[in-house]
Amino acid sequence: MSSVPPPAAAVVALEERPIFVEEAPRRQLEDALAEVIQLRSKILDQSERDLAELALEIARQVLIADVEGLREYTRRMCDRALLLLEEADKITIRVHPEHYQAVLAAHPELEGRGKVQLLPDPTIELAGVVAECELGRVDARLAGRLDEVRRQLGLESRSKASSP
Fold this sequence. Notes:
- With about 160 residues, the chain is an alpha+beta fold.
- The chain has a domain at about 65-160: hypothetical protein PF0899 fold (2-Layer Sandwich).
- It contains 5 helices and 4 strands.
- Helix 3 links the parallel strand 1 (about 90-95) and strand 2 (about 115-120).
């Protein structure tokens, strides 16, 4: 004769079984939800970085499109470099050839070969100024300034991002 469980035990066994069966799908749903939340966070972080990069690129394009603004920026950066390096015995300032005349117009004293030597340099980008002396170097190129903004925003600089 087969043993038949008492009715109360059968009810308990049936009640426990559906709970166990439902537990696995619930865990799967919770795990899937956690994954979705994590993925959403990653997407938002990447979107913020992409948006910041886009804003910097738009700013760069606007600055480059403003020819007179670039000349003014170059003149201001030359002024700043001269101020920062005023204690130096000899200063060499290099600017893009297209801005050489604009800087000379703002600083006619640079045409002579005195303490400060102004040089046109095609390797310097538009709106770029590099001043060097025995005290150090002032790099006021636009790309460098934008890279500094990138660093302050916690973004990777373009030069590091593009290197292999």
